[in-house]
Amino acid sequence: MPKSLAKVQNKIAKKRGRSTPLHENSRDSQKLRRADARGDKLARVAAARDKTKQPLLQRIAFFKYAVERNDAELFTLEHVHALIDGFIRRNDEALADLKKERRKGRPASAREDLLQGRMVVEGKEYDTGFCKYLPKLDFSVTRSVWPGLRH
């Protein structure tokens, strides 16, 4: 059964005593290495999962803020399309600044490529079905999904 590094360390310390050194390839040292590697792997997987979910969380936060600012009962279709277009083009100013800072004849910076690529991917996603992960922007439904909004 997989255990955390601290649990393995405590179990080995209880069994052997605190002052007894371990041999390099003993069973206990192998257990410690495996437990440490398991902890490292779990941390790497969690960091990768958080990194992949970050754009989705940014999208949800953007639209939640838009719903909070909205005074109307319901969103019209034009309003929803304007919100989505605003979300896709949210980095236009930063992209323009990066282009302005770049000297003539120089390649685009990594940040500029990242922003441009993100806009292209989100534009394609908008064409194929953008609101896959968002609730309907019906005011009553939105209130039940995002209960922290002011009433």
Number of strands: 0
Distance between the termini: 49 Å
Number of helices: 6
Content-based structural category: mainly alpha
Query: What coarse outline follows from CA principal-axis ratios?
Result: elongated
Fraction of residues in helix = 55-70%
Radius of gyration: 25 Å
Largest sheet: none
Mean pLDDT value: 81
* Strand percentage: under 5%
Order of secondary-structure elements: HHHHHH
Q: What are the low-pLDDT stretches, counting only 5+ consecutive residues below 50?
A: none
Explain how this protein is built:
This protein is elongated. By secondary structure, the chain is mainly alpha-helical. The longest helix is centred in the first third of the chain and has 43 residues. The model has no long low-confidence stretch (mean pLDDT 81).
